Every structure is written in C-alpha cells, then in structure tokens.
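Fig. S4 source data, part A: sequence.
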Amino acid sequence: MALKEHIQAPLRKRLKRFCLYSLLFPLCFSCKDSDSTEEQFNPNNPVEVTAIIPKTGAVALPLVIHGKNFGNDKSKIKVLFDDVQAQVITAKNEHLYILNPRQTGGEHTVKVIVEDKEGILNEKFDYIVTSSVSTVAGSGEYNDNDGSALEASFPGPEYLSVDDKGNIFNSEYNGRRLRLISLNERKVTTLIENGDVFGSYFSPDYSTLYIGIESSSTLANELDCTSSFIKTVIPNTLEMKYGAASAAVDSQGNVYYIGYAGAIAKKDIKTGKLAIIGEIPEELVGDYSGIDYYAAYNPKDNHVYISSRKTHIIFRFDASQVSLENGDFELYAGIFEHTGHNNGDRLQATFDSPKGMAFDSKGMMYIADTNNNVIRIINSEGKVSTFIGNSEGGYKDGSLEEALFYHPYDVTISPDDFIYVADYGNHRIRCIAIQ
C-alpha cells in the first residue's frame, strides 16, 4: 500500500475549500447569536435538521449543521452519520459545530438526536476518503498567550502527549510551562508555569502524565489527569545529573526516566520503587553534553526507543531487562554521527537531529526528523521513508503531498490514530489525519 495517497485535481480544489471553511466556522460561533440561538431544547417540539455545510468532506473537517430545537447543551446531543457518531464542539439552538468522523467513502445519512427526539437531514453527506494535515492550535506568533486554540501562541512547542479524551499536553522548555490544548473546547490553557518541563508520557489508562524535569533537585512531575491536574513532585533522590529529559511507560505501567546525562531510572509501578537500571553507552551518544533525549515505548516488541539528536540515531532496549549493560542497547536506525536524508533500510538510512517518536496501533514508527523538516516513518520491515514534508521546510496545511513543517520536534498519536506534531519552527500544533 502506498504511504501517500495521491489526490486528483478535483479533490485538491475541494480540500482548499475545506481549509477555508475550517477557518470561517469558528468565527461564526464566536459572534453574538440572536436570542433564538440561546433557547433551551424544548421536548414538546420536534428536532429539525435543514442543512449541513459543507455537503462533502474528509476526516476531521469542521462542519456546521443548521436546524431548529437543538438546545445548547452538547452533552445531550448526538450527531450520527449513519451509525458513526461525530464529536460536537459547540451547540446552539439552531446550529451545531462538529468534526467530521472517520467513515467509509460515499453518501451517509445525517441524524441529530436530542434526548428522545431526532431529526434527519433530507440530503446525504458525501464523505471523501483522503488524508490531510491541519493546524489545531497556534497563531504562528512567538509568544505564550492562552485562549482559543487558533489564536493562542507558542514560543516553540517541543514535547507532546495526547490522552483518550481529546487533550494534548505540550511541554515548552523555552516557555518553561506545560500547556493543555483541549480539542473538545478548542482552547489552550497553562497548567504549570516556571518549570523546566521536558518530555512526557501517559500511563496505559491515561490517568497519569509523567513529565521529565531538568533539575538537580527534581526528577519529574506526575500529573493526575483524572480530575484537577494535581501535580506530584518526584524528588531527584537518585542524584541523576540534570534530572530527566524524557519519560516512557510500558504496557504494565512501569515508568522509564531518561536522564539528561544518560542515566536511565525505572519506577516499578507495583512497588513504587525508583532505581537507576543502567546508563546509555558513550558509543551511542558521545559525551552527553547538550542531549535532549526523546523516548517512546512500542508494545508490539516491548522495547523502549530513544532518539539522540546529537548523534543522529535511534536506539532501543528491551523493557523486560532488570538491569541494562552496554550490550543491552541496540542501534535501531541511522548511522552514528552521520547526517543526511537517505531512505531505505533502517541501519543505512540517515537522519538530521531526529527527536520525537511515536507508534500507531499497527506498530508503525513516526519520527520528527527535525533539521530535515520532515516526518519519517519506519515500517514493520525496517524500511525508512519520508512521510510528509521536504528538506526546505515551511508552513502549509493540506494533503500529505502539499503539507510542510519547519523544524518539527515531536509527534504523538491518539488512541484512534490521529497524529499530532509539535511544529516548533512554525509555533503551532498540527494534526495528521490518515484515512
């Protein structure tokens, strides 16, 4: 199967219109509505669905549904395309702002259900099977303002984690803060200020976010994501030099902190014991200075993967190991201290400052190849290819062939395989929707 889907000219035109719609729709909902749109749902009246704009589109496209008697409580509203439920972003009495769910290609019946009332659109919605890149947060300005997602600003998003509820967590070392991007509410808020936050990773049940901290006194923060994002500080009792640059969590819930200076600590989730289990050998990372490691866990092979942007390689170790000797670290991809943009076999391919990595549900690895301005992938056969972008870089949403990044730092993948990119040079968070 081809790694990129080639979109014909008519589809390209429609995709451009979709991008325009996605910019205009949030503006419509930010304006003051008439008094009728503020009315509550009336169970004595029918639910009417009169139009959907646009009438055709691909996955994750913002859509507006017009009608009557929707109410304004989105928790009571279901929007179905046949049997596939869409995410309701904003609800007004006469229109709904939703995201197009992943569907099969072709025509689908649109239905809105409010409590025990339902309305059906007379015309069908035409779903286009394609893949695309879009911006989900960030105005492109170098700043640290919170607010609505596309108006908020980032000094440089560096580390990302995404949960199962539509929340993206962005660690910014430059801004020294942890930011929350709510995809449901389309807004950005700051959770932690004045903290030297680094790479983060979720527990298997998404209840806890483990965040590496650059500090001689603090190793990490553990963020309780079940309620009010309560932070627990993990002191650096192991005296890991400079603290932890990143974290990874295996399928059992054990946490691996990758030290800024190369030590690896493991927290046993059953006993709570935290101990250093090994140290990254110098033949993989040089003298350690200036290393900002990124880490990821692959449940398909039970290995923790670490990228070394200084030596331009990716290496791994078996998470079942009780302790790690030099021989337990395996070079996985790239050539030590060789930069380039060569695809092919993973041990012959070259990278230029690879940083964030993530695995999808099929075990495919996605890599933010930072200085090459691209997203690379490594398939199950160990073949490296360029997925999106080119070496010149830039900023452009659209199809996989057209989209551009500028110094992408990290990638993270949601449970439903949406890929989010920390587009550092463009000061934005991007989404790759693959159909």
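Fig. S4 source data, part B ends here. The first strand starts at residue 48 and ends at 53.
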